[in-house]
Amino acid sequence: MSIEHWLAFAAASAILLAIPGPTILLVISYALGHGRKIAGATVAGVALGDFTAMTASMLGLGALLATSAAIFTVLKWVGAAYLVWLGIKLWRTPIATETTDGTMTVPTEKPLRIFLHTYVVTALNPKSIVFFVAFLPQFLDLGRPLFSQMLIFESTFLVLAAINATAYALMASAARSTIRKPKVQTIVNRAGGSLLIGAGLLTAGLRRAGA
């Protein structure tokens, strides 16, 4: 693989990852609600979810989703329903309160649960799997071994996805320190919940390419 191919892929991936989607909305929501301590769980969920989607694409599941309306529709509705459920859950999340010593008490949620939520939102997106089918081949050099190129591209994308999710989580957790008033926290939770519900509705309206 030439360095030009790799740099083009890395640049395109970085731009695509920087655009907030349902996964990043969830990462930001958790960071605002729980702080920096859960960043590791969300980043791990994003990385494993992207790994699952990319591996599924390489195994041919992306091509199957692109041609099978029934499978695409089932996966699409499951993913949409899950996003809407998470949005409603965020709407109803208890707000953090400030104690007499100035510290913040936040609702407890196990990191494993947060990791699983983030993983499912990232992996359970049929459009992502189909996207990787269309995205990766543009950067492959057919005159060279394909497996090694795919391995490099997948590793590159996962590293960039982890860095991107970490940056969003840290920025959100830094902003969280300024959100002390219960009214502001309520607005943040409901805005984030509304965005997740909206993302779920948009996911429900997805169509297969060429459909």
Features:
2% strand, mainly alpha, globular, two-stranded antiparallel ribbon, 211 residues, 9 helices
Task: Explain this structure.
This protein has 211 residues and is mainly α. The protein has nine helices and two strands, in the order H-H-H-H-H-E-E-H-H-H-H. Helix 2 (22-34) packs antiparallel against helix 6. The radius of gyration is 19 Å and the shape is globular. The model has no long low-confidence stretch (mean pLDDT 75).
Summed up:
The chain contains 9 helices and 2 strands. The protein has a two-stranded antiparallel ribbon with strand order 1-2.
Number-wise, the strands total: 2
How much strand? under 5%
Largest sheet: 2 strands, antiparallel
Order of helices and strands: HHHHHEEHHHH
Radius of gyration: 19 Å
| Count of DSSP H/I helices | 9
Global shape: globular
Spell out the blueprint of helices and strands.
Layout: H1 3-18, H2 22-34, H3 39-58, H4 61-67, H5 69-91, E1 97-98, E2 104-105, H6 111-123, H7 126-135, H8 146-176, H9 182-204
Antiparallel strand pairs: 1-2
